[in-house]
Amino acid sequence: MTELGRRAVATLCYFGALGTILMLSSCGSNEKAAALPSLTRPTRMPASTPSAHDEEEVKKAYTATISLLDHVDSLPIAVRKQQLSQFMGEPQLSRVLGGIQKNQSENHASYGRIVTHIRSLEITGNSAILHDCQDSSRTGLLDVTSGKKINRGVKEERVKAHLSRDSGRWIVTDIATLGQGC
After folding, report:
1. Closest C-alpha to 60, from 86, 83, 80
2. CA angle 55, 81, 133 (to 5 degrees)
3. How many Cα neighbours within 13 Å face the side chain of 10?
């Protein structure tokens, strides 16, 4: 055996003996053993799973909101905010009311109907995030005086909506378009 090999064996024997001594020295002690940290990841308790009822209520609130947006600019001003408030909260409510006011000042109105295709839904407590692939290809703006269509939507548009539970009902608080294609 070479000198290097003898040193390696001697070193291993030394650490083995040292480990045995340390292990045995704790056996006769009156002190309580300290727990060593676990090498495995701690298991997390899953968050409470949203009920099927909650999921259906969120989807229903979202689709009702989108359906109302299709014709909200044709509602009388006196009832418009009241109608929207049933399905929408801030800041989305103010955005929609401001958009309607701007369109009307330019003699524009919306036409058509948006078709929703909900792709995913995540509910955490009183908050929900919904991803939709909207088909707005048969909707857009038109000039009220001429009846001429100014623009139209797209076949597939990614949308992310935030909803909150308010007094037991779900309302849309933010809608953001994420771009074309789903």
Report:
1. 86
2. 40
3. 7
User: What pLDDT tens digit does each residue of the chain (182 aa) get?
Assistant: 544 444 433 333 333 333 333 233 333 444 444 444 444 444 443 445 778 999 999 999 999 999 999 999 999 988 999 999 999 999 999 999 999 999 999 999 999 999 999 999 999 999 999 999 999 999 999 999 999 999 999 999 999 999 999 899 999 999 999 999 99
- Predicted TM-score (pTM) of this structure: 0.71
Separation in Å, CA 39 to CA 12, 33, 34, 43, 99: 25, 18, 15, 12, 56
Residue type, 102: K
- The upper half-sphere exposure of residue 104, i.e. CA atoms within 13 Å in the direction of its Cβ, equals 12
Are the CB atoms for 89 and 124 separated by under 8 Å? no
65 CB neighbour count, 10 Å cutoff: 23
